[in-house]
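Hey,

Quick one before I head out. I ran the complex with MRU overnight. Inputs first:
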Amino acid sequence: MVSVKEVKEMFKPKLKPIIWDDNENKLTVLDQSVLPFQKVFVELRTPEDVADAIRLMKVRGAPAIGITAAYGMVLAVLRAENLNDVIKLMHDAKSVMDKARPTAVNLSWATSYMLNRAREYIEKGEAKDVKELITLLKKDANKIFDDELEAEIQMGLYGLEKLNPGDVVLTQCNAGGLATGTGLGTALAPVKLAHILGIDVSVIAPETRPWLQGSRLTVYELMEEGIPVTLITDTAVGLVMYKKMVNSAMVGADRILADGHVYNKIGTFKEAVIAHEMGIPFYVLAPVSTFDLKSSVDNVKIEERDPDEVRTVRGVPIAPENVKVFNPVFDVTPPKYITAIITEKGVIYPPFDKNVRKIIEK
Ligand code: MRU
């Protein structure tokens, strides 16, 4: 078995969706709302720019929005004239960015982490002025980004143990390198590592209506890497499992609760239930920053987006103009349908209400 370090040396990402320039303090993201038809990078200069980019899904995917928001907290401190300004500026930035999207917990995890770090540096006198504080906070944001890649490699290696040569993996949405900012990904990490190591594995990607993360992003990302992928409609998920065209399902997550309930892109629940019925292993891959051990299913908000995302397909009408629409963009999968949750700290098996804490809090 190869090590995380060895994979890190072998991994040459084709995509760099989040770029932070440490010298210029400049944050640039690849606009995922127009991929794969246009490859446009946009500069985000303020926490408000970051919040807009997250809301408009120019940057999306739970880990990617967390990393971008961490840099957004650095951008907030760039506005400070002295250390007395800092906490209020960071509080305001956190509140603007946390509101951009409600379901992925990585976002508020990252902003809280950065705010707490700033408080500590100021209280302990480790930052004597704003300049020193910015240097320390940039290191923290860079570390969140670096740690994410290491976590993904570790998850990828654990996930690889669940695959055999020739396997076909069903996924959902885009839980690849675009969604995490690293170029690798969570759910797609095992497949990408297999590819790097010369093991033949392929993917079936549902298109993921309404925003089409599957057809626009997963397919694009895998084709860029030279990994075989077949696009299906969301409604074909049942048939491909019935016909045993896939050996396992691997998906990402936006939030995982202590009892093993998994929030992920709409369509995940349906995929998990069918996998369970068909005896196909269903794996969730997510870093520790995606776990929310405090909330319960009664108080997690599932984001609902613009009805026009459903009435149209990328601007082209497909329904009567004023039809009533329900557009939840995430769903929640109960633990009984999940075979295992793969994290960088280890693989969690049922019973999740006991084992999630054992692994995450260790
Ligand atoms: O609405 P999106 O595109 O941000 O949703 C993304 C997902 O649901 C992903 O599966 C999840 O964030 C995990 S990404 C590694």
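Residues 60-63, 104, 173, 175, 179-180, 185-186, 213, 252-254, 264-265, 329 surround MRU (CB under 6 Å).

Talk tomorrow,
K.
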